[in-house]
């Protein structure tokens, strides 16, 4: 039994091709031309072809040349038309496949490029979000420092107010001491005047009172010395407090300067944060736009893929048509072989009837 795809028509066509090359058709050559089939299958069919071909060559001498030329022309026309159709279908299919493949490559490259751009924008958005978080953290630290400076400023103001109160108290006490000193001086002047007035009248009484007055003067002098020492101490304390007040004022000025600098930094960081927020919004819009564009490209790719599938279906249909056409050609060749056999039999019929005549 012959294998699938190897029949008498295939062997006849291969043998005819080999003979046209000027070589003798043999089993090995026919098998090499077909690329398949066993020698046990090819040998009897090749022998049949040689027998029929030899008879046809000896028996077709009585046929009209016009009939032979017409059959050959019909065969060559059918064969040429079939070859042209096959070549056209192959060329058109190959061209369409190449075009679709090129379009698919372009779409894939564009899709890859869009994907890379989307990844870069997402990375940039992540970096911007990280920088925004760092700026917010820095803003929180600055606000905490600002709160601390404001607390120190309030505390310094309270300390200054307290020192001013102490200075006012010391000034009041100093004025009181001076008032007492002036009163004591006035009193001593009055006493001395009185003593002068009474000196002439009561010289004896004055002598008796000298000791007492001396003691009072000594006590008053001691008190005056103590008052003067207290005044000096108060003056030193006043000077010290004034120096502390000046230092606190300098500290307050420094804190105010730092506060202004921190406020400017806070303003600049807020402006940067707003700018980053605007950039983030812009990047988000770009991502949305690219996502839409990517979706459109994906839809376009799907449409091209559907087109490719349709073209492949058409290609399969054309291949099926080609197979059908090849089958029709084989049938036509078989019919031709049968016609040749009938012609051979018809040519033999007169030869057999001639002796009877």
TrEMBL record:
Residues 8-117 form the KfrA N-terminal DNA-binding domain. Pfam families: KfrA_N (PF11740). It comes from the Bacteria. GO terms for molecular function: DNA binding. Keywords: Coiled coil, DNA-binding. InterPro entries: KfrA_DNA-bd_N. Residues 104-349 form a coiled coil. This is DNA-binding protein.
